[in-house]
């Protein structure tokens, strides 16, 4: 490919490249570029929203460039204020390092790990050693007025919500990360634009060539709100295929074009074809098969596209209506389980919990305790509340009495909601 073709390919789905001319010049140099992404391990999981950026970094790797993942074990103790309406609770260094362990495994599903194209660093390596004089030097690069131009800070300031001084230091700490690794490009979502641009100022202050700010879109959760576990709209890349498939089938219809654009490599024309010919049902199936199939593998394929869809055993021309054509076991099982639940059929592959004899009295157990032991409720009190709201079932029948005793003469299937099942039986 020519430099212009490479640039156009890299820009696909990007929101902004600042400045684009600098990226063109760096690509024309022919040298291996250093592509940076910082991840603060405030949670132990990586979701498909993170994968939008990580897959773009994989594209840089395929072009021969090196990606550097910086685990923000030190900056996570400050807490990134980007997009926050209140001060983020700080974490200890030990907490951030515990969360970081799973990050390393999960990014390996997307990024090549050979040393020539991958490096993993922890920013405590250099931030712990900074002197106060260096912190003052960093802080002198941006004015208070510039800080208050940030939407999140401006909103908090005008509403009277407290802003701690240490939050102002976060962009400088993230920016300084670009100094020791001499980043050519820093990746981030739209909420990171200010921080990425501060990185350019910091590099200039240290006499380095300024990085390019490569800004990718933020992917909403399946219900249209911010992707978050607390909203139950979060799709983790390491979740079981059946779980990933179900969550993708639940993406609200208006977000289907966006998910197909950001989570796959289908062309705009192919996406339009799927949406027009398949409708919401067919488009959901195409999305769920492609993404579930990709992340069920040890290493996500380079392209999640028409050819990959064919490798899964489907034809894009069918636009999702070829339900019985799939030949990849993980997808077949995930799809079958989804439709079993949709038809109110109890799946075969459900966990089994044995109830100890000590929990039984004359072979029976209080129903609330049974659901708690099965792991379907957090406490007996929650189980009773859900029974009152008709949210729990035994053998497909709604449990009506929160104080009932259940005989365990034979195995029983417990159900919470539409798709959480556990088989319980007496045992030791």
TrEMBL record:
Q: Which GO terms describe its molecular function?
A: ATP binding; RNA binding; tyrosine-tRNA ligase activity
* Coiled coil stretches, renumbered: none
The record's section on PROSITE patterns has:
S4
Mind listing the UniProt keywords for this protein, alphabetically? Aminoacyl-tRNA synthetase, ATP-binding, Cytoplasm, Ligase, Nucleotide-binding, Protein biosynthesis, RNA-binding
Cellular compartments annotated: Cytoplasm
Ranges spanned by the short sequence motif 'HIGH' region, renumbered to the chain: 41-50
Q: InterPro entries from the entry? A: aa-tRNA-synth_Ic, Rossmann-like_a/b/a_fold, S4_RNA-bd_sf, Tyr-tRNA-ligase, Tyr-tRNA-ligase_bac-type, Tyr-tRNA-ligase_bac_2
User: Key word Nucleotide-binding present in the record?
Assistant: yes
What EC number(s) has UniProt assigned to this enzyme? 6.1.1.1
Annotated motif 'KMSKS' region, positions? 226-230
- Which transformation does this protein catalyse, written as a reaction? tRNA(Tyr) + L-tyrosine + ATP = L-tyrosyl-tRNA(Tyr) + AMP + diphosphate + H(+)
Q: What does this protein do?
A: Catalyzes the attachment of tyrosine to tRNA(Tyr) in a two-step reaction: tyrosine is first activated by ATP to form Tyr-AMP and then transferred to the acceptor end of tRNA(Tyr).
NCBIfam families found in the cross-reference section: tyrS (TIGR00234)
Matching entries from HAMAP family are given as:
Tyr_tRNA_synth_type2 (MF_02007)
Indicate the family of this protein: Belongs to the class-I aminoacyl-tRNA synthetase family. TyrS type 2 subfamily.
Quaternary structure (record): Homodimer.
| Record protein name field | Tyrosine--tRNA ligase
Q: Which organism is it from?
A: Calidithermus terrae
């Amino acid at each position: 490919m020519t430099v212009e073709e490479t640039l156009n390919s890299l820009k696909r789905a990007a929101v902004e490249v600042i400045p684009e001319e600098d990226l063109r010049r760096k690509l024309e140099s022919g040298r291996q570029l250093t592509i940076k992404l910082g991840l603060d391990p405030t949670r132990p999981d990586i979701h498909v929203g993170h994968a939008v950026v990580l897959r773009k970094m994989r594209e840089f790797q395929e072009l021969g460039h090196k990606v550097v993942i910086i685990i923000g074990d030190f900056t996570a103790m400050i807490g990134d204020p980007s997009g926050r309406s209140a001060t983020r609770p700080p974490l200890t260094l030990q907490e951030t390092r515990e969360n970081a362990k799973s990050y390393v495994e999960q990014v390996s599903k997307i990024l090549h790990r050979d040393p020539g194209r991958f490096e993993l660093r922890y920013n405590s390596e250099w931030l712990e050693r900074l002197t106060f004089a260096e912190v003052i030097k960093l802080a002198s690069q941006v004015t208070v007025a510039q800080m208050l131009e940030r939407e999140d800070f401006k909103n908090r300031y005008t509403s009277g919500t407290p802003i701690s001084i240490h939050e102002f230091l976060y962009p400088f700490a993230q920016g300084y990360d670009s100094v020791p690794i001499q980043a050519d490009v820093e990746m981030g979502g739209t909420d990171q634009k200010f921080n990425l641009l501060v990185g350019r100022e910091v590099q200039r202050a240290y006499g380095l060539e300024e990085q390019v700010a490569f800004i990718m879109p933020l992917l909403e959760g399946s219900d249209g709100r911010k992707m978050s576990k607390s909203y139950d709209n979060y799709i983790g890349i390491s979740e079981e295929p059946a779980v990933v498939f179900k969550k993708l089938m639940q993406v609200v219809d208006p977000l289907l074009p966006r998910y197909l654009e950001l989570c796959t490599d289908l062309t705009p024309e192919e996406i339009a074809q799927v949406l027009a010919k398949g409708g919401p049902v067919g488009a959901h199936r195409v999305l769920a098969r492609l993404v579930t199939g990709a992340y069920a593998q040890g290493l996500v394929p380079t392209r999640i596209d028409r050819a990959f869809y064919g490798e899964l055993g489907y034809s894009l021309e069918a636009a999702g209506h070829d339900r019985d054509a799939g030949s990849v076991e993980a997808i077949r099982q995930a799809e079958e389980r989804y439709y079993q639940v949709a038809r109110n059929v109890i799946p075969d592959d459900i966990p089994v919990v044995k109830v100890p004899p000590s929990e039984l009295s004359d072979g029976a157990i209080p129903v609330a305790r049974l659901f708690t032991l099965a792991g379907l409720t957090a406490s007996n009190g929650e189980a009773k509340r859900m029974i009152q709201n008709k949210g729990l079932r035994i053998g497909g029948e709604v449990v009506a009495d929160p104080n009932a005793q259940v005989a365990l003469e034979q195995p029983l299937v417990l159900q919470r909601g539409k798709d959480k099942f556990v088989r319980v039986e007496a045992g030791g």
